[in-house]
Amino acid sequence: MVKIGDVNLGEFPLLLAPMEDISDPPFRAVCKANGVDMMYTEFISSDALIRDADKSVQKLDIYDYERPIGIQIFGDKVDAMREAAAIADACNPEVVDINYGCPVKKVACKGAGAGLLQDLVKMQNITAEIVKRCTRPVTVKTRLGWDDDTKNILEAAQRLQDVGVQALTIHGRTRAQMYKGEADWTLISEVKNLPGIRMPIFGNGDIDSPQKALEYKNKYGVDGVMIGRAAIGYPWIFREVKHYFATGEILAPPTIKERIDTCKQHLKFSVEWKGERVGIFEMRNHYTSYFKGIADFKPFRLKLVEAGTYQETLNMLDEIVHTFG
Which helix (H) or strand (E) holds 169? Predict the structure, then answer.
């Protein structure tokens, strides 16, 4: 069994990646309904959180049906990260997670996220302060290194465990790669097999099918996998992976009715959590993915994007069922 502190995640957990503007409570709800074992909030700026910025505070919202769940924070200042960790810890998640992997310029080039892979001593010091401040397990998500010349994940993993980190998720790319090219899991496997590494090691990057999930599980020996982009608009990926692990069979893809029912549920949560105007607007990020691969769907997608009210959107979704179902 894989455990983070006292949190039991089962034999080979499937984790939902923290994705900015994606991994909010409405999206997490539909992923949970499809079998994900552990989820994380969108990453939260430590500076914004201690300033009590509304958008960052809202990201702290977690619900009992989501458990186990981690709140993820990022930043580059020791004091701000310590204080933000305390705020996150007080919200009673199962874990407090630190983002040392975000590659985007406005984060990494300011010394936060993957930027801290350029200063492992600072990364270790920030982490040590967070571990001291939190009452629950601290975990980390990071990358292989800053670029091909500085793949320092082996040293980073040891340093993080030394100061009390209880699980590590590694995205198999460098910061320089962003999300391009193929994820390299060989170094993730090396971390898992380092003498003295006791914490669970989760792999992330390019898991987009049940077959690949099983292949990577067997080939690289990780304790679990984290799925990100493949779950956007397709939360069924989690149930498909679990079914394949258990039976060796590929589940049939969701029917049009299943897609619509899940999309409606997602929309309902989105409107309830964010209000009608924002909830409808932000659902537009998901429609292309929910209905990917359906021939001649473009006119209906445009109508969904143009719908201005909750009821109009529901009517449009019903029309899609009648047309394609």
Answer: strand 168-171
Q: Who contacts 20 (Cβ-Cβ below 8 Å, separation ≥6)?
A: 42, 43
* pLDDT (0 to 100) of residue 287: 87
Q: Is 232 helix (H, G, I), strand (E, B) or coil?
A: coil
Do the Cβ atoms of 250 and 240 come closer than 8 Å?
yes
Question: 209 with 238: CB under 8 angstroms?
Answer: no
Q: Per-residue pLDDT averaged across 294-321, rounded?
A: 92
Q: What is the C-alpha separation between 126 and 118, in angstroms, rounded?
A: 14
* pTM beyond 0.85: yes
Spell out the domains of the chain, with CATH numbers in brackets: 3-247 (3.20.20.70), 256-324 (1.10.1200.80)
| Residue 179 to residue 302: CA distance in whole angstroms | 27
Cβ–Cβ contacts within 10 Å for residue 296, how many? 8
Q: Which residues are catalytic?
A: 102
Element (H, E) at 15: strand 14-16
